[in-house]
Batch of 2 targets.
Target 1
Amino acid sequence: MFGLSENDSGQLLYLSLLLVLLVVSFGFGRGRGTGMFRQLGIWLLIGVALVALYTYRGPLMRFAAPVVQELAPSRVTEVTSPSGAKQLVITRANDGHFHLDARANGADVRFLVDTGATTTALTLDDARRVGIAVDSLGFNRPVQTANGIAYFAGATLDSLEIGPYHIATVPVAIMPAGAMDTSLLGMSTIDRFSSWHVEGDKMVLAP
């Protein structure tokens, strides 16, 4: 619900209903006569609304997703398709590319989604930030870049989180300083999803 996993949505609903019960109990303890019942009715309506919101979270998320993505295009939004399948949706940015905010080894990293790249690659700064010991790497593997031939080093991420989807043991290429401006999410990672496709300005990933 609104970017939360189903488990998190359930916990949110539980906590919300618990809050309703606590407030209603407080009202019984302090309310008098008509005012007490009016307050009870209001909080019961709120409880019913929360239950309805959770029950219809799929359609509501499909409605809210475009708004969320317009406000934060790099945010990965989890939606439920009409068939009930979970999907991750990314919106195309103004530069014509798909970008996404992920967490690599627990650190925030912004990736450019590059379906023409075979391997997921990190800039040197991002590699250092996610905890890779870059000073001990051997940059001896050649690759063609927009700036010519560059030499990269191989490494492995322990974890990569894209929205609520968690991928363990992700091989990556570490690029030397100045080789590229942003980290790339290549096909070696995209293919870890069961499927993907582009619909207009949306990229849809199926976990």
Target 2
Amino acid sequence: MELTFHPFENPGDSGCFQVVERRLDGEGRLAHGKVGDADSTLARGRDILHASLACLEDDPAALVHAADVPPSEVRQACLARVSASGWRLGAIPEDL
């Protein structure tokens, strides 16, 4: 089966990043402030990586589909592929 993803529906975008952001915020690993007039959020890259991996460990489809957003047809296809693959995140190296 072949799937085509158009940029506006690409499940690899940051559309589901809020799951990582919520985890980081819950762990107190985000700094909120202003850059000029823009509300901004700052996080260490290492913390983002660890939070992302933890989200994937909890749910391999966590970055493809947010539970509080109805999935598009493209995301539904991605969810089906992740589910059918049986993919699970392997061991996370301690030194990341």
